[in-house]
């Protein structure tokens, strides 16, 4: 949110005469001074036409969010404390609370299996398949409910999974004209992996001991679900704020490995296959950080920073009620 606030208040400018899409945009007022190539800046921040009433409405709506009485985040201090403190300074008060991660409790089988919607395949069949595999031997791949890979990207991903030799679960949303790619891929790999067209019980999958890494598009719910599950993440952000989440995970938290970027860029299949194998190596620094951040997240909601922030939020809301 620090990045979103900074971009809304101080619109980024591409000062390259040719408007090079790789022109680097720095945000010096944000902690760690993150830098992004121009093409990763959200379109509503790139098309900053002051005379356009639609653009002005969008920008003012964004800024209005930061004029709220208080701001509540589904996050935790050990992951983003420097940004919460920055935001408090920017909005001029301390009513900024991190109360997450808000997820089904460990052992909540129903909540873990149904979070996000109904699965496109029987959950018990997935669990049976996972139970047959060694701990930390499976790569889970999912790009969420909206992102759609191009045919070239899907072919590269399938080739990488096949060449890597790892066991995997691939959950993908594909248009009808790409369905044959997954069908042929499923036939080739056999029992080495599971291919799901549609939605899968992501929390239940990630929390299974057989899953060691997670190739993700970096949606925030997926990020939190991956962190709490102690898996290494391979990042492939597709757009908007997902690039900022990937930078947080890879460069600042050290819990993830960069695998791809964008809706049109096509990674090298051999390199992607190598990263999948590496991600299952339990002595990698990212594996150590995954455990550390998972422990920090659990501590935050069990008497730690998030627990205390939630108590303070409730107290302040109760105080407002008393004044009415």
Report a brief summary of the structure.
With 324 residues, this protein is α/β, with parallel strands linked by helices. The chain is 47% helix and 13% strand.
Commentary on this structure:
There is one protein chain. This protein has 324 residues and is an alpha/beta fold. The protein folds into two domains: 2-98, no CATH class; 109-299, Rossmann fold (3-Layer(aba) Sandwich). Strand 1 (24-26) and strand 2 (35-37) form a beta hairpin. Helix 7 runs parallel beside helix 8 (179-189) and helix 7 (151-164) packs across helix 12. The chain has a six-stranded parallel beta sheet, sandwiched between helices. Strands 1-2 form a two-stranded antiparallel sheet. A two-stranded parallel ribbon has the order 3-4. It starts with a helix and ends with a helix. It has 14 helices and ten strands. Residues 1-20 are annotated as: Disordered.
Topology:
Layout: H1 2-9, E1 24-26, E2 35-37, H2 43-46, H3 53-65, E3 71-73, H4 77-91, E4 96-98, H5 109-114, H6 123-131, E5 138-142, H7 151-164, E6 167-172, H8 179-189, E7 193-197, H9 202-206, E8 211-216, H10 220-228, E9 232-235, H11 242-252, E10 256-258, H12 269-279, H13 285-301, H14 305-323
Parallel strand pairs: 3-4, 5-6, 5-8, 6-7, 8-9, 9-10
Antiparallel strand pairs: 1-2
Helix pairs in contact: 1-3, 7-8, 7-12
Distance between the termini: 31 Å
The major beta sheet can be summarized as: 6 strands, parallel
Average residue-wise pLDDT: 89
Residues in helix, %: 40-55%
InterPro entries: UDP_glucos_trans
GO molecular function: UDP-glucosyltransferase activity
Keywords: Glycosyltransferase, Transferase
Family: Belongs to the UDP-glycosyltransferase family.
């Amino acid at each position: 949110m620090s990045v979103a606030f900074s971009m809304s208040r101080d619109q980024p400018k591409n000062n390259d005469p040719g408007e090079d899409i790789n022109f680097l945009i720095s945000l010096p007022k944000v902690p760690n001074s993150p830098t992004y190539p121009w093409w990763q800046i959200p379109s509503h921040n790139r098309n900053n036409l002051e005379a356009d009433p639609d653009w002005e409405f969008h920008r003012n709506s964004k800024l209005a969010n930061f004029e709220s009485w208080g701001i509540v985040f589904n996050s935790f201090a050990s992951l983003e404390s420097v940004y919460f403190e920055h935001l408090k300074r920017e909005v001029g008060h301390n009513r900024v609370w991190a109360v997450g991660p808000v997820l089904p409790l460990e052992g909540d089988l129903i909540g873990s299996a149904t979070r996000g919607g109904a699965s496109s395949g029987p959950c018990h069949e997935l669990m049976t398949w996972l139970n047959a595999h060694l701990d930390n031997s499976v790569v889970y791949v999912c790009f969420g409910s909206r992102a759609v890979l191009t045919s070239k990207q899907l072919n590269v991903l399938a080739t990488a999974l096949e060449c890597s030799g790892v066991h995997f679960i691939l959950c993908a949303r594909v248009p009808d004209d790409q369905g044959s790619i997954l069908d042929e891929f499923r036939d080739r790999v056999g029992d080495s992996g599971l291919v799901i067209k549609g939605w899968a019980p992501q929390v239940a999958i990630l929390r299974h001991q057989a899953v060691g890494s997670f190739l993700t598009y970096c949606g925030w719910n997926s990020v939190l679900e991956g962190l709490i599950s102690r898996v290494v993440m391979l990042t492939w952000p597709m757009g908007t704020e997902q690039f900022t989440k990937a930078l947080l995970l890879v460069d600042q938290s050290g819990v993830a490995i960069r695998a791809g970027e964008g809706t049109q860029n096509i990674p090298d299949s051999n390199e992607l296959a190598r990263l999948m194998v590496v991600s299952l190596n339990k002595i990698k620094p990212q594996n150590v950080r995954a455990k550390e951040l998972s422990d920090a997240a659990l501590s935050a909601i069990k008497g730690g920073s998030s627990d205390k922030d939630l108590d303070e939020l409730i107290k302040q809301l109760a105080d407002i009620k008393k004044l009415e």
